[in-house]
Predict the structure.
Amino acid sequence: MMSLAGGASHGQVGRDLILRARQIAPGALRQPLAKRLTGPAVVTIVVAVVAYCVADLEVLQQLYFGGLDRLERVLSAMFPPNPGINPLGLLQALSVTFAMAIVGTLLGALGALPLGLLSARTVMKNAAIHFVVRRVMDLFRGIPSLVWALILVAAFGLGPFAGVIALALADIPRLGKLFGEALENVDDRPAEALRAAGAGWLQTLRLAVFPQVAPVWLSQCLYFLEQNFRSSAVLGIVGAGGIGFELEERIRIYAFDEVIFIVILFVVSVGVLDWVSERLRARLV
Amino acid sequence: MRSTNESGEASSAAGALPAFEARRRQILRRQRLELLIWTLVGSAVLYASFSLSGIFSTALDSETLDRIAGFIDRMIPDLSASELFASRQTPGSLEAWFYDWRKWTGALFETVQIAIVGTAFGGAIAFCLAGISASNLVRFAPLRFFFRRFFDTCRTVPDLILAMILASAFGLGPLAGVLTIIISTTGSLGKLFSEAIESVDMRPAEAIRAAGGGILAQARFGVVPQVLPNIASYWLLRLELNLSVAAALGIVGAGGIGIELQRAISFTEFDTYLAILLMIVGMIFVIDLASQFIRSRLMGRVSDLPEIGGIAAARPRTGGAPA
């Protein structure tokens, strides 16, 4: 496919050129063996690991023995979508889910603010403090909001309040890290100018750093609001209220035509929220 | 606010200053009005949200605080320093706390496997579809539009809801988890990949076409070398994220460690819950470190990911919730 164009003589000249170039600079046209083998080796290892996992999980067997026709039955039960007997109740549940996302994001942002300040090298000069704060946030960042919700529902009882706290707890380390990074990325020159004019730590923060990071932080919060709307729908499954609760009920009784209606409703409202939030974020940054 | 002052051009030089002042006052007034409106709308939304999410109706009295305190007390295991390394039968030892750690390690391993298989297949599907839906490779717009919407839909349906539906179809077990992660990964990586492919320099591919290369040769030698570092990096980041997703999926019965979490809660063994949680956190931490190491080794050439699709793309790991 990549042969040189032209007749036989032309090809001969090209080959001579390549031969001569090889003699002059052998390394330029031929990479060392180890380097050439890296790509295939990485691919082989990845394929082997994946193949081992597929075999060990026995997913193919599960798929083959009766999985597919059951999926077909579920899919055919989904159509046509059916709003059920109480469509207004669904809208109300959806608004509870949205409310949980808003309050959860707000509380998460409030909690993340001090952590972000402490974890930014530019604000917190003490290396030990920002190292510790960062590691602690790293540790907690992996815990999904659902895992928090599971235990908070056990503590606070069923209802959206547990979901709100779960969202906030999951957001604090994630937003804290983003807040800290935004703080580290600010232009240092306004702060220097203020310090030179004799401003204190708090004044520098308020007048030089904060105006730069505030729009970034706000846009990150909006992005988290979008994400939290998706997660809070899920929290209902473990009893934290909202649309997930309605969904869970219907999946449990195999009412898949109502399930698909709720899913479509949710997908559409997520699309609307994303669109609004994207426009707001574009105005901010 | 942003419109230019057109009336100012007409006025003479002598009248410019008052006109400027008037215009400034007008702008300030509008800014204040906008701020007022935003504050009103914001506080109305906040008030509605607070009341809907039950903050007002949840009485945070001493009884609630007692309950939380008792709850935390039940979560923290009774360890005694003298018998920390004693056998499982001794109350107060570490092994009595992590009493089923062999089973939990197996379940954790299953979670890791689910994440790997889901991310691998999801990434492969996303890569193929992204090539088709990138505007610089395929000029046929309806196809692109279709795949874009397809990615959006895959991304939007929350993982757990998908997992519940799939688990009710396939029964409890890892298959539902794997399929869930394949679908959500296809959605999120498909968008990122097609944006990465759209941002490549098309000149190498053009050169290959000029030398007589077909469409496959153009893709293989002109496009793939440019996007490979980015794509591998996104893929690894997504693997990290999918690990925590897979850990949660088990809660609805889709295999892995989540089943054990659910079991601990339903038997109200809150100290066991904490033990399993610690194991999950440790696993994610270790894999994060390993993945960071691999990324810096493999992708040392690309210092930073390009800013694609805002914060979501630049830092998928910290995006947190299933994107």
In short: Chain B has 13 helices and no strands. Chain B touches chain A through 80 residues (CB under 8 Å). The first helix of chain B runs from residue 7 to 10.
